[in-house]
UniProtKB/TrEMBL annotation:
PANTHER family: BCDNA.GH03377
SUPFAM superfamilies in alphabetical order: Glyceraldehyde-3-phosphate dehydrogenase-like, C-terminal domain (SSF55347), NAD(P)-binding Rossmann-fold domains (SSF51735)
The protein, known as: Gfo/Idh/MocA family oxidoreductase
Domain of life: Bacteria
C-alpha cells in the first residue's frame, strides 16, 4: 500500500518513522511503500524525504490524494488544515489517518464523522497514547474490575517549552491555525485517555483558561498570543465519575508529563508518561501488605510487547506510532473497527469546547453534548 504523509515537521517525522519500521516489527501486516512526503517548501521537504526514507516528494497535497499509487493519506499538518485535507482524501477513496486533535471545532469534527461513515476508506485518529503499553494495560485492569468502581480521576499534561517568555511565536500560538492552545494540544490527549480508560464520555465540564505570556517575538516583530497557555477543568462522566484536569505548556520543570490517576472503590491506578514503562497499581486488602505496586510493563504478556524487545527491555515514545500504524493496517486488511475513531475525536472536541464555553461564562457547568 502506498502511503503519503502530509507534513514533514515534528509529527511528520514521528509518523514517517512509524511507516519505515512497521513491517520490521509487525511482520503480519501488509507491506507499505513510503511513496510521497508532502510539504509547502520544496527544498525543505526534499531534504526531509531524503532523511526519512521517502521515495518522492510533492508540494501540492490535492494532486497527491488523487493519485492511484497512494492508498493511505496521513495528515500531519497544523490543525486548521486537518478537516480540509481529510475530507478531500476520504472523498478520493483513500484510507485516512489524522493526527490529533481531529479538527479545530465541533462543526468540523461532525463533518469528518459524517464523511468517514460514508467513505470507502477507513479513518483513524492519531491518539497515539492509546498504544502506550502501560495505559493499554490500565484499560484492561479497569475493565476487569481490579480497582472496583472508578469514582474519581486526576489528569494532567504538563510541559515547559513555553515557560520562557522570549520563546518565539509558532503556529501553535495562533488561534487561526491551532484552534486553541494547550487545551487542544495536550488537553485532547488527557480527555481521550479518560474516555478510553473508563469506556464512557464526559457529559459536563467547567473550566478556566489562562494566557500567562500575552505577546511573543515573531518573525516580523512582537505578536499577540491568541490561545491559552494553561487550563484547568472539572469533568463529569455519564456514570458520575468526577475528574480534575490540568494542562500547561508553561509548567517549569515538566518536560512531557501526562499523568493519569484513577481512584476506585477497591484500588487505584497511576501513570506518568515521563516513566512510560511503569504502571502503579494499588489494591485494598490486608493492611500489612496493601500499598502501591509498580508494574514494569515490559513483558510479552503486556499489550503490544510481543512485537518488540526481549522481556525487561523498555520501550519509548516513538514506539506508540509504530504500533498505531500496525493497528491501522490490520484494521484495513481485516475490515475491522479502528480506534481511536473520528467519533472519539468528536467526543473529545465537545469536551474542549465546553471548557472554553464555561470559561467565557465565568466557570459555569456546561453540557458537552456527549
Amino acid at each position: 500500500m502506498g502511503v503519503a504523509v502530509i507534513g514533514y515537521s515534528f509529527m511528520g517525522r514521528a509518523h514517517s518513522n512509524a511507516w519505515r519500521n512497521v513491517a520490521a516489527f509487525y511482520p503480519d501486516v501488509a507491506p507499505v511503500r513510503m511513496q510521497t512526503l508532502v510539504g509547502r517548501d520544496g527544498t525543505r521537504v526534499e531534504q526531509a524525504a531524503a532523511d526519512l526514507g521517502w521515495a518522492g516528494v510533492a508540494t501540492d497535497w490535492r494532486e497527491v490524494i488523487e493519485r492511484d499509487d497512494i492508498d493511505i493519506v496521513d495528515v500531519c499538518t497544523p490543525g486548521h488544515l486537518h478537516a480540509e485535507v481529510a475530507l478531500a482524501a476520504l472523498a478520493a477513496g483513500k484510507h485516512v489517518l489524522v493526527e490529533k486533535p481531529l479538527a479545530n471545532s465541533v462543526a468540523e469534527c461532525e463533518a469528518l464523522v459524517a464523511a468517514a461513515a460514508a467513505a470507502r476508506g477507513r479513518a483513524l485518529l492519531g491518539f497515539n497514547y492509546r498504544r502506550v503499553p502501560a495505559l493499554a494495560l490500565a484499560r484492561e485492569l479497569v475493565g476487569e474490575g481490579r480497582i472496583g468502581t472508578v469514582q474519581q480521576a486526576r489528569l494532567s499534561y504538563l510541559q515547559d517549552w513555553l515557560s520562557d517568555p522570549q520563546a518565539p511565536m509558532t503556529w501553535r500560538l495562533r488561534r487561526e491555525s491551532a484552534g486553541s492552545g494547550v487545551l487542544g494540544d495536550l488537553g485532547s490527549h488527557a480527555v481521550d485517555q479518560l474516555h478510553y480508560l473508563l469506556g464512557e464520555h464526559v457529559t459536563h465540564a467547567s473550566g478556566t483558561l489562562r494566557t500567562f505570556v500575552p505577546e511573543r517575538p515573531g518573525p516580523h516583530g512582537t505578536e499577540t498570543v491568541t490561545v491559552d497557555d494553561a487550563a484547568w477543568a472539572t469533568l463529569h462522566t455519564d456514570s458520575g465519575v468526577v475528574a480534575s484536569l490540568e494542562v500547561s505548556r508553561v509548567a517549569t520543570g515538566r518536560k512531557n508529563a501526562l499523568t493519569v490517576e484513577l481512584f476506585g472503590t477497591s484500588g487505584s491506578l497511576r501513570f506518568d508518561l515521563e516513566r512510560l514503562n511503569e504502571l502503579v497499581l494499588t489494591q485494598a486488602g490486608d493492611a500489612r501488605t496493601s500499598g502501591p505496586t509498580t508494574i514494569m510493563v515490559t513483558e510479552p504478556e503486556h499489550p503490544y510487547l510481543k512485537a518488540w524487545w526481549p522481556a525487561g527491555h523498555v520501550l519509548g515514545w516513538d514506539h506508540t506510532f509504530t504500533s498505531q500504524a500496525a493497528d491501522f493496517l490490520r484494521a484495513i486488511a481485516a475490515d475491522e473497527p479502528v480506534h481511536a475513531t473520528f467519533e472519539d475525536g468528536l467526543a473529545a472536541q465537545r469536551v474542549l469546547e465546553a471548557i472554553e464555553t464555561s470559561h467565557a461564562a465565568g466557570g459555569l457547568l456546561t453540557e458537552t453534548g456527549n
